[in-house]
Structures are given as structure tokens and as C-alpha cells.
Amino acid sequence: MGIHRLNHAVLYVRDVERSVGFYRDVLGFRVKSRLGDQAAFLLAPDSANDHDLGLFALGAAAGDSLAGRSTVGLYHLAWEVDTLDELERRGQVLVLVPTVELLDQWVAQLEAWVGSRHAVGRMGGGHAGDLASHEVLVAVVNSARSLDVRPIRRGGLLVADECHRYGSAVNRLALDPRFSSRLGLSATYAREDDGTLAWLDPYFGGTCFRLGYRRAIADGATARFCVTLAGVRLSAVEAEIYEELSERMAVLRSRLLRAHGLPAEPFEAFLRAVVALADGAGPGSGLARAYRQAMLERRRLLADTPAKDRCLA
């Protein structure tokens, strides 16, 4: 008996619902059946198979795969479409960048990938492209936040390079909610203000992939480097403020968990719930805002302490 083709693939994932959303909304798969929140079985758009993909949940605490780094394992899955035009019907793409230099780099890379058949538009740096005349548009955020970058068709993908920059009160205007699929890229995602919690996490849905230094060095994405950890001592006043803020956060967290049912773990889920509650006006919103403020003040204290400068002097 000869083997004709691969019948289906099965993947272990952290969150079945999030993975289903990607394959359904971006690639057009449809759900055939589910086993609660533990598993889902999906069909490709034009498939007559029983199922083409199985997804099984391991939970949010599951570690990253080491395949290709220190263990053997799956390299990739390739899903076949009839033509590029068929793929394009899934939606348009907007790439946000903070500078004209990055705009040029993105356009050069995309043009090398799609070839001359598909024009890549530019917005910013003297260019005024839009998604009315391009399937893929690379836009400088200064232009995108004030001009029309809405997708012409439903769905679409927004890619935000250096996405930590788009948590400010002005730049977040470029994060159009009409793109159903969103991907943020950043080497320094955290911000000193509440932009990450208040805007970036709700828009992008949290962190879905982390590229560690070992993998980045092996892939040639970053240079080799040496790191030295140096402890610093806070001043007596700073230490007192730090302890007061930490105690305040502990008390507020306990009240939020006990009285308002926020999830205790994982901590990212707790923070997302705090942000959602703080942005509302219902019971517990004041506690959530107080917790968020205390956390930001403690983070700012650690970021701005003069002890760091004295250590480097």
C-alpha cells in the first residue's frame, strides 16, 4: 500500500482559541469539531478531508519548542493555495514603521519576496500610497495616524514594526481596529508609561512569540555580546517609596482578586483584566486604576534611579 500524501497535522499550542482564530481568520480554515477548550479540529477552505489540522492545548505555562535549536522536531507546515490572487482575497496588509529608513527596508524586502507582479505601496517620505490602490502598504506612523489607511476589504493584516512606539496617545491612532489580524514586532516591548497595558496589549492580544538571544544569534539576527549584571543600592528614600508602592500593590491585588474575580494566574492575564476594569466605570474600576498607577510609579522609580548612573561612572 503506497502513501499518497500527508492527511493532516496536529499541533500542541498554549491556547486553542487563539490558534483557531489565526487559522480561521487569516487562512480561512473552518472548525469541524471541538473538545471544549482543550482541542479543535479544522478543515482547510476547499478540503474534503475529515480534518486537516488538529490543535491541542497545553496551557499558558507551556514552554517554547526547542526544535531546530537543541532538539529534533517539526520545521514547518506549508499550506497550498491555487494562486497568489486566491491568497490575496484573504485581505490586505498594512505595515507600520516609525521611520523613513525602515519604510525603505521593508519595501525592498517585500518587493524581493512578491516580485514585480504585486506593487508594494508607500505612505510617508514623500509618498502618498493607500490601500485603495495597493494590496500591501508600508506606512510611516506619522502619516498613517492622520491619513486614510483603512482596508478596502474586510479582514486584513496590520504589522507594526517597533510596536512599542505606538502606545503613545498620538501614535496609537494608527492602530486601526478594522484589521482583524494584528502582529506587533519589538525588541523592547515594555514602556515606562501605561501604553503597553492600556493600548498595545488590548490591540495585539498580548505576546504570542518570544525570540531568545540564543536563537537570535544562531539565526544571525543579532551580534554576539557579553552581559554583566551589576546590582545597585537604592537610596533610603527610594527604598522606602519602593516598599510602600509594593505593599499598596499587594493590598489592591488581594482586593481585586477577592471582590471582583480577576484571574490570579498567569500574571499577564491578571494585568489584562486590570486594564479592562480600569478603563471602565463599574465596580472595581477605581481599585484597578489605583493598582495600575502604583505599578507605573514603582516601574518609573526603578527606571529613573540615579544609582544606575553612579554604578556606570
Descriptive terms for the model:
313 residues, alpha/beta, 2,3-Dihydroxybiphenyl 1,2-Dioxygenase, domain 1, Rossmann fold, 6-stranded mixed β-sheet, 10 helices, 36% helix, 15% strand
What does this structure look like?
The chain contains 10 helices and 10 strands. The chain is of the alpha/beta class and 313 residues long. It folds into 3 domains: 9-57, 2,3-Dihydroxybiphenyl 1,2-Dioxygenase, domain 1 (Roll); 84-218, P-loop containing nucleotide triphosphate hydrolases (Rossmann fold, 3-Layer(aba) Sandwich); 236-312, no CATH class. The protein has a 6-stranded mixed sheet. Strand 2 (30-35) and strand 3 form a beta hairpin. Helix 5 (195-204) crosses helix 8, helix 7 (236-260) packs antiparallel against helix 9 (285-304) and helix 8 packs across helix 9. The longest helix is centred in the C-terminal third of the chain and has 25 residues, at 236-260. The protein starts with 8 loop residues before the first strand and ends with a helix. The model has no long low-confidence stretch (mean pLDDT 86).
